C-alpha cells in the first residue's frame, strides 16, 4: 500500500460529487465565488480535514482540468483518483491539520492522519487563480516519542515575525546547503543558540548534543544520512519548510524539514523522511520534486 492519504481524500470527494468534469468545473466556479474570504492555507487545511469530516464543498478548491500529482504512487490528474478508491478502508479516515502556512502561490501543511494506521505528513499545494493545480507530499508512519519525550507533531504552532520571512528562509537555506549538503558540520554553531534546540525527530533528543549522540549511534550501526540537493525552501514568518533529496540507510530518500526560527536562530525542528519508490513503480512522470 503506497502512502496515498491526501490523494485518496481528494478522490473520495470527487467520487461523491457524481458529476462529470464539465459539471464539476461549473460547481467549482460557483462555490469558489462564495468562499473567496478564505486564504489559500485555510483552503488547504479544509481540504485535508474533509478527509475526516466529509465536507464535499472543499472539492471547489481543486482545478478539475489542470491538476498535477507528484505522489509517485498515483496516476496524474483526475483520472488517477479512481485507481486508488479501491484501497479505501471501511469506516473512513481521520485527518488533523496541526500547522498550515503559505508562501506566495504555495501552501504547506503538517498533518496527523489515520489511514491504514497512524501516519504523519507534510502536504504542499500550488495554487493558480484560487484553485489547486499541483500537489506534493511526504508521509510516514507515526513513531514513538523521541529521547526527549516529544512527538513528531507537538510543540509550537504560533506564527510570528511575518516581517522576517525572507531572512528566516535564507537562514534555513544556508544551513541546509552549508551543513547538510556540503558537510560543514564545524559551522553548526552559527545556526543555533548554543544547545537550546527543540527536536521532534523520533530518533533524536533535544539540543545539538542530542543530534551529535544520534549521529554517533547511527555511525556505529553503519547508517548514513546524506543530503544531496535542496529543492525548495518555503516559509511564513518564523516557520520554514525545506524539501531536500538524498540517501538514508542506502535508500533514495525525500527529506521534508520544518524549522521554527527564533531571534535569527533555529529553535525547533520537525521532519518526515520518505523512501522514494523506484522508477518501475511510478504511476506518473512528474517526479517527486520538480518545483
TrEMBL record:
InterPro entries assigned: NTF2-like_dom_sf
Gene3D superfamilies reported for this sequence: 3.10.450.50
Protein name: SnoaL-like domain-containing protein
Amino acid at each position: 500500500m503506497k502512502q496515498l492519504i491526501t490523494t485518496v481524500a481528494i478522490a473520495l470527494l470527487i467520487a461523491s460529487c457524481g458529476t462529470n468534469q464539465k459539471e464539476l468545473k461549473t460547481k467549482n466556479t460557483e462555490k469558489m465565488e462564495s468562499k473567496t474570504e478564505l486564504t489559500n492555507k485555510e483552503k488547504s487545511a479544509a481540504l485535508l480535514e474533509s478527509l475526516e469530516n466529509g465536507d464535499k464543498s472543499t472539492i471547489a478548491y481543486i482545478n478539475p482540468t489542470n491538476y498535477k500529482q507528484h505522489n509517485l504512487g498515483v496516476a496524474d490528474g483526475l483520472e488517477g483518483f479512481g485507481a486508488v478508491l479501491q484501497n479505501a478502508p471501511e469506516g473512513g479516515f481521520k485527518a488533523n491539520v496541526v500547522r498550515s502556512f503559505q508562501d506566495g502561490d504555495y501552501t504547506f501543511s503538517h498533518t496527523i492522519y489515520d489511514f491504514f494506521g497512524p501516519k504523519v505528513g507534510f502536504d504542499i499545494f500550488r495554487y493558480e487563480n484560487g484553485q489547486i493545480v499541483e500537489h506534493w507530499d511526504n508521509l510516514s508512519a507515526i513513531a514513538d516519542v523521541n529521547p526527549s519525550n516529544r512527538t513528531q507533531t507537538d510543540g509550537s504552532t504560533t506564527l510570528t515575525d511575518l516581517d522576517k520571512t525572507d531572512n528566516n528562509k535564507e537562514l534555513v537555506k544556508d544551513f541546509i546547503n552549508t551543513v547538510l549538503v556540503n558537510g560543514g558540520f564545524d559551522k553548526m554553531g552559527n545556526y543555533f543558540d548554543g544547545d537550546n534546540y527543540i527536536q521532534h525527530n523520533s530518533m533524536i533528543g533535544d539540543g545539538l548534543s542530542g543530534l551529535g549522540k544520534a549521529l554517533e549511534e547511527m555511525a556505529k550501526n553503519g547508517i548514513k544520512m546524506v543530503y544531496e540537493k535542496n529543492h525548495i525552501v518555503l516559509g511564513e514568518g518564523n516557520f520554514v519548510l525545506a524539501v531536500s533529496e538524498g540517501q538514508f540507510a542506502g535508500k533514495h530518500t525525500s527529506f521534508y524539514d520544518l524549522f521554527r526560527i527564533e531571534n535569527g536562530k533555529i529553535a525547533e525542528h520537525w521532519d518526515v523522511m520518505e523512501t522514494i519508490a523506484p522508477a518501475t513503480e511510478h504511476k506518473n512522470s512528474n517526479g517527486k520534486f520538480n518545483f
